[in-house]
Amino acid sequence: MKRGDFLKNTALALAGITIVPRHVLGGNNFLAPSDRINLGYIGVGKQVGTLMNGLAKLPETMIIAASDVDQRKLTRFISSANQVNAKKSNKNVEGYADYRELLQRKDIDAIVVASPDHWHALHVIDAAKAGKDIYCEKPLALTIDEGRAMCNAVKKYKRVLQTGSMQRSQYNFRQAVDLIRNGYIGEVHTVNVHIGEPVKQCDLPNMAVPDYLDWDMWVGPSLYRGYHSDLSPPIESTQWAGWRWYRDFGGGNIADWGAHMFDIIQWALEKDHTGPNAFVPPDKPGAKFGLYYTYENGPTIYHKNWGESNAIQFIGTEGKIEVSRSFLRFDNPKLENIQFKSSDKRVHFSDNHYADWVKSMKERSNPVASVEVGHRTSTVCNAANIAYELQKPLKWDPKKESFDNGFANNMRSRPYRGSWDYTKF
């Protein structure tokens, strides 16, 4: 072909291409502008550093905006994010005190939600309405009704949501789940899980609000209470924020670590789109352990200290598996180096929770911890807390998502303050 004809034909061909394939423009390491995923962050406290660094390692991502009600934390994040961006481009991050202004930007493709639990529903639903894909930290929802609304909004606006249940992207848990699902320890009849205490009422005294913090906006849709530094620690503090232990803001360890460990139980028992059928709390008033829950035609799960913290013990008719982030143990040594059979069914493979989200955004597919997965897990957490608080055995219908008790059904939701409303989408 003559050079002139080649240039003419190439120009005509490229004119008809809306998104130029990466391999055409420069090999596998070349990132076309159409492949770039511009991120906005909502909530930039202690957890956000892990999220930012993990996502920044992916060549497709770029941070372009962030929002927080704490001006000092927002300033710190912008400085760190600009340093991260400098390795990819000279794009500067813009900050917003009100997340709704951030969501109005058309150049943002996806939102990372790392706000306190009581904000998750509004942040996710508003992001979905704005046409953004979402990564939302666990537990997905503070209440059962909020979780279902989040599922409905994500589905309505055809968004991709990854719940931050990152244990699904770790070897120990994936291996344990594959072994259990394929019957390598027989039929599981008992599961013991140690994750700490249920939620409690907040009895912290009021303190003067720092001038860098919009406390009214921090409380947001929850019932108002005065500021305390445990709820929103200053930037100098190394402690995890205490809001997670208190009703109206978090769900105690039942939700904080339960969102990880109950999630693995749901996954192992193939209950990702359903849930337990009963929750039975201990008789002793104020008990912090002793609840158990059951599945129809399934095992009994005990919330107890079985000897290991933040860990699960699966007991089957033919063996036992114990798993945490730091160990994977078997009572049958043959399982140590097991070679799965070709007929075995394997779970969704992910060894990088952030990359799995990006891949799902590109393919418009469900990630390893989709919004429905996140909702069903947070429902277990919330239902367990309700049973502990009411001190009543409760039957749960996972299809109708309702209890057999009117008081418990009222606790599936919570009052929203002022004009905030998660139901309108």
From TrEMBL:
Domain Gfo/Idh/MocA-like oxidoreductase N-terminal stretches: 39-164
InterPro entries: Gfo/Idh/MocA-like_OxRdtase_N, Gfo/Idh/MocA_oxidrdct_glycsds, Gfo/Idh/MocA_OxRdtase_bact_C, NAD(P)-bd_dom_sf
Residue ranges of every copy of the Gfo/Idh/MocA-like oxidoreductase bacterial type C-terminal domain listed in the record: 201-421
UniProt protein name: Gfo/Idh/MocA family oxidoreductase
Organism: Sphingobacterium bovistauri
